[in-house]
Write a sequence for this structure.
């Protein structure tokens, strides 16, 4: 079995980001209504996103491709230099294009 | 202020949860990156792996925001595979790769299974069920 990310882990990270954003949104919307309890606001204005199981698997694949691309491109540079170990300079060389590609 | 105190505690818990997830994510990334380097016949230094892991984590955070917005824009509450493919639309090759992976996933899950999805949700593993974020 090939190495990849655990969909549950990715889901947990997504949930965390989404709930953080939902909280921020609530805070912005309810800026004047400070005395209203925190719990009361959350249930109604809950526009929190959720994710399909296949979508999570696909996200895992996307992230896996990101990591393998980074390593492969850096490996190519290292190989061209005739070095057997990937070092910071190699990553620095490929980083701009990598970030543009993802 | 009670409200202020509660949100502080919440934030602390939130940070702790983030750190835990980041560590778990880092471990996965390290194993993927090292396996990939090995298959290229290369060694990779530890700081570089950690750096790639942090990059990937930042990318995941960005991805989560993008996916939420894409789903919202489509008038959905749930993120689906189209949203993930859309997030890679700038890179045609990447989008194509994801599209074929998406078709593979669909092929593994026949139509009849998808219809029974809700009924068998509890027995079935995560492979066929739709995962929802629980209301807090």
């Amino acid at each position: 079995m090939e190495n990849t990310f655990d969909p549950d882990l990715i889901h947990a990270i997504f949930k965390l980001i989404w709930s953080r954003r939902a909280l921020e949104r609530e805070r912005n919307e309810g800026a004047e209504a400070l005395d209203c309890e925190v719990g009361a606001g959350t249930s109604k204005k809950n526009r929190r996103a959720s994710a399909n199981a296949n979508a999570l698997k696909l996200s895992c694949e996307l992230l896996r491709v990101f990591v393998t691309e980074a390593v492969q491109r850096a490996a190519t540079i290292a190989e061209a230099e005739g070095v057997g170990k990937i070092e910071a300079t190699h990553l620095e060389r490929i980083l701009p294009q990598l970030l543009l590609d993802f | 202020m009670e409200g202020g105190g509660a949100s502080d505690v919440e934030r602390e818990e939130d940070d702790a949860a983030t750190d835990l997830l980041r560590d778990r994510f880092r471990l996965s990334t390290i194993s993927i990156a090292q396996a990939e380097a090995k298959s290229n016949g290369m060694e990779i230094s530890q700081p570089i792996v950690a750096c790639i892991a942090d990059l990937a984590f930042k990318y995941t955070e960005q991805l989560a925001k993008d996916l939420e917005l894409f789903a919202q824009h489509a008038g959905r509450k749930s993120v689906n595979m189209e949203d993930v493919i859309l997030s890679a639309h700038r890179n045609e090759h990447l989008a194509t790769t994801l599209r074929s992976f998406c078709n593979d996933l669909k092929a593994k899950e026949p139509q009849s299974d998808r219809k029974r999805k809700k009924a068998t949700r509890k027995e079935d593993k995560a492979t066929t069920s739709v995962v929802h974020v629980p209301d807090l």
